[in-house]
Amino acid sequence: MKATSLTNYKSYHHLPTLAGLATIEEAASPGLGIDACVARLKRYHYAFRRFHEIFIARITAEPIYELKTGFSHHAYLCAEHVQTLRVRVGEMREPPLGLEAVPDQALEILFDEILAAPTTGELLVGLYEIGLPALQAALALHMSETNPLADAPSIRVCRFARLELADMFAFGAQSIACLVTPAEREAMQPWVALLNSSLAVAGGLAGANARVERPLVRQYSATPYVYDRVPQRDERFQDLHNQGVNPEAFLYNPQYPARAKTLMMLFKRLREVDVPEMMAGIIHETKGKPWGYYLDMSRQLWDEARHAMMGEVGFVANGVDWTQARITYNWSLRLNTECTPIERHAVLYYIEQGLMAKTGKRYEWEVGVASGDPLMATIQDYDWADEVLHAAIGREWYIPELGNWKDALDFGDRCWTKIVSNWADVREKGLTRHDNWWPVIYRQACANWGVEPDPAALAFDESYAGQRADLKAVSGSA
């Protein structure tokens, strides 16, 4: 079509052309062919998959709570975009998809180096200043070079990915500004140069630029990365082995008022930060599953991080200094260091099944409503819905590993008993005195509420000695 024809063409009553996707002139440019389009999409898929791997692998040993939860969120977002790209490539004459192949050795070095970054500062810079911006630029280039009508499905995939990448950048930029000093940034410049060189040798993340020929010498990834199973916490988390307060015993006792019980539920929510620490290892160490497994497990991991943050919000809203509670890591530490991935998943599923009982999530929501605090009702409403989803994820991916529901449940029961019977052991080793932190928290909340503490509630002093969180006795733990 001649240029004059393109510019002179008018739609009916000047309505938007081509369903609002583009003008006729824009759509008349041929853009990327299928082969070129698919080659780029596979590189974006590889990038999101590697970012997902990095975020998951670094959750457990990252001590800073805000980064731990942020990585949980970004891992889930990456998992969703991996799935979307898999679907899109599958629509484009690509069976078999070949999505497990490494598209470029230089990109592999880039991601291996970021994964192996030895410090939090280098990890943040590698992710949020080098890797993710390169992916954002590649997606923008794709949108500008492909045909906006013929390749409209790919443009939609790119557009939504770029929206969430922008949110990730904002988080990363603020984190770097808070944590990375000028001296640290100066020291990492040779490594940053390697990351940029890797992108240049690869022709950019999309592979659309002229390739630069230069040698790439691995630095941190010269030694293969080893996942660190030991959870780390920042200094706000104190007395990490404390099992001195049994919130379930308080929560299920009818003599205590509902409003006081909400504090125990907030403790239980914030304590769920140990679930991402544990689930990260299951995901990272379980190989060869369909992508749906990693997507579903990443969603659950993110939900558990979100629950912890809901507990944080609830404590702050009630005028409580949550650092005075003992948000322990005993559960995730023992699961990670003493159990296999399938044993960890067994414990997770067993707990989820218990939460479907009358004393589970429905009851916690009812307590939230009865407390008169609308925020608690909302927190428990969504927490309940999430746990129903998590039970379904367990049925989909865990039960088939054991054969049937009863065997899966029995195995989970045995595995949980295996890792919660160290109440006396940690005390004898001097790791904790199992102090009762409850009165301090309860008094703070009552002062904020403008009420006197309930004497019975204030006097609560029941620990996890001989008990686990479902109130089942554990032999040898007292």
Structure description:
The structure is a single chain. This protein is 63% helix and 0% strand. Helix 3 packs antiparallel against helix 6 and helix 5 runs antiparallel to helix 9. The radius of gyration is 26 Å and the shape is globular. The C terminus is likely disordered. It is built from 22 helices and no strands. It has 478 residues and is an all-alpha fold. It starts with a helix and ends in a 20-residue tail after the last helix. The longest helix has 28 residues.
Task: Produce the secondary structure layout.
Elements: H1 3-8, H2 24-27, H3 34-59, H4 65-90, H5 105-115, H6 120-145, H7 152-179, H8 182-187, H9 189-201, H10 247-251, H11 258-271, H12 274-285, H13 291-317, H14 330-338, H15 341-354, H16 361-370, H17 374-397, H18 399-402, H19 405-419, H20 423-428, H21 438-449, H22 455-458
Helix pairs in contact: 3-4, 3-5, 3-6, 3-12, 4-7, 4-13, 5-6, 5-9, 6-7, 6-9, 11-13, 11-16, 12-13, 12-14, 12-15, 13-17, 15-17, 15-19, 16-17
C-alpha geometry: globular
What low-confidence regions span 5 or more consecutive residues with pLDDT below 50?
A: 474-478
Number of helices: 22
Quote the beta fraction. under 5%
Biggest pleated sheet: none
Distance between the termini: 85 Å
Element-level helix/strand string: HHHHHHHHHHHHHHHHHHHHHH
Total strands: the figure is 0
Helix/strand class: mainly alpha
Mean pLDDT: 94
Q: Helix fraction?
A: 55-70%
Instruction: Kindly provide the radius of gyration, computed on alpha-carbon positions and rounded to a whole number of angstroms.
Output: 26 Å
Q: What is the domain total for the residues?
A: 2
